[in-house]
Structure formats: C-alpha cells, structure tokens
Amino acid sequence: MAMESPIASGFCLVNNALPPAVLIARLPMCYILSGDLKMHCSLEIASPMPCCIPGDLLEVKVNELTSPMTLVPYSYYSLPYCHPTKNGEQLHDQPVRSSPYLFKMWEPQSCKVLCRIVIDAKSAQEIKEKIYYDYRANIILDNLPLLWPIQVLDNEDSPDSYHRALGFPIGIRGWFVSVNISTDMEEGFYFIYNHLAFTVKYYRDLETDSARIVGFEVEPISIKHGYKGKWNENTSLTTCGKERVLKGPQPVQEKEEIIFTYDVQFQETHVKWASRWDTYLLTRHRETEWLSIISSLTIVLLLSGMVTMLMLSVTERVLS
Asked: Does residue 297 contact residue 232 with C-beta atoms inside 8 Å?
C-alpha cells in the first residue's frame, strides 16, 4: 500500500527531509519523479511504520498463465475466469491486471462466491489444453507472487516438509475408478481448480497493532458446487459450511456449470519484512525446462562444428 514514511517500503512515494545524497545512499534503486525529493522506489526496505491495519483493503492482481513445459505465456483472462465487477483499466495489453478477489486485512472469508459460468466446447478445450501442458495461474498481493506449497512425500527425515512453486495449476488430469463411467483411458478426465484457499501471512507490530504482509500462499481445490433452486446473487451453496454435501471434483466438459469460490485466512508469522523474499529463493518447477536445455545444446553443437571445420581447413592448408 502506498504510504508516507521516512524510509521506502515496497513501491511507495517517499517524502523525506534528508539530503539527496543520504536518501539515494539508502535507496539505490529509486527514481526521482520531481525536484522535491519524491521518489518511486523498486527496492523494498523495512520501514518503521507498518502499512496494514484491520479492515484495510488489500489489492490483489492477476498475472500471466505460464508453463514450465511450453514456456509460452497466455493472458490470465484468456481462460473463462471471473472478471472484476468494476474495472477501469485501459491497459489491456499488460500482463498484470485487476482481479475480482477482495481481501480485507484480518477479516477471514469462507467460500466466497466469485461467479458462475457455463462453458462451451471451445472454452472446455482451452482449459483442457492448459491443464495438459501444466499451465499455472499467477496472482500477486503486495508485490508478492503467489506460492503453491507442495508436500514432499519422499523426505523421510521431515515427512511434513514442503517445497513451493510459483502460481497454482489450472487443474488436474485423472480418471474415475467406477464401472459406471466409461471413457478413453488415454485421454482421461480433466478437473479444474475452481476453489482457492488463500493464506496471507503477516508480521505483526504489537506497538501499533498493525502488520506487514510477508507471505502469500494458496491451496487449489476442485469442487463441484451445488445449490438449491434457481441461481441468483443470494444463492447459498450446499457444498459450503458445516453441513456441506460434497459432490466430487469439478469436471471440464461442454455445457458444464462451474462456480468459482475462494477462502481467505490470515496467519501470523515471525518472518520479518526484510526477509519475506527468502522463501522465493527456494522455489522450483516440477518439470525440467527441456526446451531451454535443448536450445543451449544445439547452439553449442553448431558453434563447435563451425570451429572444427575452420580448424580442419587451416590444418589442411598448413600441411599442403
């Protein structure tokens, strides 16, 4: 969030009475916007003034869909995801866009409905392709990219350990174990993650009863939501709450009704503002980026071949 502070914090505007040399020494990645020492800072430095108090609106942005298999990005809204109800943005060619997610500091939400859609054959095929190629949706909160914790099952020393990946998968590919459902076993079924359980981690300042956001994680879930009667804005879902009735995962099929929902919970942590990026140094992709490896090897082989031909030509001339 933008704020006035003696020290820069995130992407904020800073007014300071310090001399320019001292201010620039503290903020080596600042850009002067005017002659009155207002600067736009791209370096995150801890500030003595926390930015968030209870009820503050937290701005959530969406980024591109990316895949470790194809390395070809797509716009987030190239898939039939829910759009924000009010969006004044005009930069439609920009990868970072507004989102329909509404977070308020220290106000947990449970099974918040975003929208309801009915997909056609084209949309269903696009979703299946993105799932097949392991595309992931990327979301940003307070300049922090969303992380997806994945449990490490083969770690005997620490069975509860996790590694974290950037973004969450669009869905999952699988098969039903049932004699009543027949399908091509090679194609399988595709299920979309239509429910997101967000966790916002924060470091709390006890003196001011405010906080800094230091982590942003999600657990994607596929739920085939149900409800009674006809759909309207006030419809209650039977798949939410204590007396919920689960109907299985949400399949991706033509004329299939999909309801997008999300949860938000806030978790206090001892990770300080200055260390909040440390977790991102340990992230890794599940798939090896073979395209980059093959491209690099091809270039090395071509250059080696050219050098070998030149050396053979020079050697032949010397010997003759």
From this structure: no
DSSP conformation letters of 73-124: -B-GGGS-PPPPSS-----TT-S-EE-S--EETT--EEEEEEEEEE--HHHH
Judged on CB neighbours under 10 Å (0-12, 13-18, 19+), 315 is exposed
Max mean pLDDT range (176-185, 231-240, 309-318): 309-318
If one counts every other C-beta atom within 10 angstroms of the C-beta of residue 142, the result is 23
Average pLDDT over residues 250-259: 95
Tally the C-alpha atoms within 13 A of residue 133's C-alpha that lie toward its C-beta: 18
Q: Which helix (DSSP H) or strand (DSSP E) does residue 199 occupy?
A: strand 195-205
Residue ranges in the chain assigned as alpha helix (H)? 20-26, 121-132, 290-319
Q: Which residues contact 187 (CB under 8 A, 6 or more apart)?
A: none
Virtual CA dihedral for 296, 299, 301, 307, nearest 10 degrees? -140
Q: Looking at residues 91-103, what average pLDDT do you find?
A: 81
Helix/strand/coil for 150: strand
Q: How far apart are CA 211 and CA 215, in angstroms?
A: 12
